Prior knowledge:
Blueprint: H1 2-6, H2 12-48
Amino acid sequence: MITLTYLPVSSLPLFIRIMSNRVSRLVLYVIRCQARMVQGYHTIKLARYPDI
């Protein structure tokens, strides 16, 4: 919040846009990693216990 006060008002929307873009990219990356982990877990489970 301290860094926001030093920025001029004109560059504030751009800063917010950049930050939201980075956050959304990070969220997408985390979701992708979690999906990969879940898939790997299921394949290991199937390999160990084929009947389940």
